[in-house]
């Protein structure tokens, strides 16, 4: 039977993942799950345990929509925290619903190329290990480029002179990335777009409002889950910074654990799991760097981030930096998010004027 491979969404990362899977599984069909909509969350929530964290519901919704479109191999990455158990539970739920498919936990706790290759062999790749390694390294480099590019966009899009310049170029950038199959093409795109993005005219005052976004990885990186919060901030001429990206999670987080704990200073003695330690350390760093405000995002019931909140409140008090807390679930009201966000940046503007 023809295999149709699918996987869940997170931000724009479906683009490099799809390219990787197409290169690795040439004889199979690769299908990105349909774009996330309200319906995705509705379907996912309907079949999820009520108490489970919201990324589980989004992923399950993605899987159901992909299965309904013909997917018969589902890939879940797996990882730390409760996320490490998503795959097993989602597989049970989907099988109970009557779907027939193969479910692969691609990474688990082991991101080594050898482990990934082993799992890809299970699905049926015919590539040699050396060729697989080439594709893997190419995609890692592409992810780095996406993260660097989007960091620049995030910090500057709020100040573009001609509306839509960044969004338009961002779209073109991804269209060209989709054609990448080797390092030299990727290198050329990097050079081209680095110049193009930097040539977009911006009017950024030196004392513009700066807001840092911290919190749980999925709610930060999947814009649908946070109601396009970064875009909303940018529309109000705010520079937005965040450090959680796939590059950070794969290559910096574990290596930096000791450093992060040390940098968190008196606010943390021990690590508190998942992204909680990073949220505390980063909030302290943002406060020390003179940011005007911080936004903390988490799924409802996310224990590592709940644990981080008392320290964030202390940082807010000590450094006199306002922190806005959002907790997302399938019941979150979009209007509520917008209203709180508007009140937050009105308050930041008043605070800045008052301090002048
Ligand atoms: S970090 Fe939070 S959202 Fe992610 S799996 Fe753990 S509890 Fe759930």
Q: How would you describe this protein?
A:
There is one protein chain. By secondary structure, the chain is α/β, with parallel strands linked by helices. The chain has three domains: 4-127, Rossmann fold (3-Layer(aba) Sandwich); 129-203; 205-356, Rossmann fold, CATH 3.40.50. The chain is built from 15 helices and eight strands. It has helices spanning 14-24, 38-46, 54-68, 83-96, 113-123, 129-156, 165-177, 183-198, 217-221, 229-234, 246-252, 257-263, 276-288, 303-319, 334-355; strands at 4-7, 29-32, 73-76, 102-105, 209-215, 238-241, 293-299, 323-328. The strands form two sheets. The protein has a four-stranded parallel beta sheet, sandwiched between helices. Helix 14 links the parallel strand 7 (293-299) and strand 8. Helix 2 (38-46) crosses helix 3 (54-68) and helix 13 packs parallel to helix 14 (303-319). The longest helix is centred in the middle third of the chain and has 28 residues, at 129-156. The termini are far apart.
List the helices and strands and how they pair.
Blueprint: E1 4-7, H1 14-24, E2 29-32, H2 38-46, H3 54-68, E3 73-76, H4 83-96, E4 102-105, H5 113-123, H6 129-156, H7 165-177, H8 183-198, E5 209-215, H9 217-221, H10 229-234, E6 238-241, H11 246-252, H12 257-263, H13 276-288, E7 293-299, H14 303-319, E8 323-328, H15 334-355
Parallel strand pairs: 1-2, 1-3, 3-4, 5-6, 5-7, 7-8
Helix pairs in contact: 1-6, 2-3, 6-8, 7-8, 12-13, 13-14
The site of iron/sulfur cluster (SF4) has 11 residues, from helix 14.
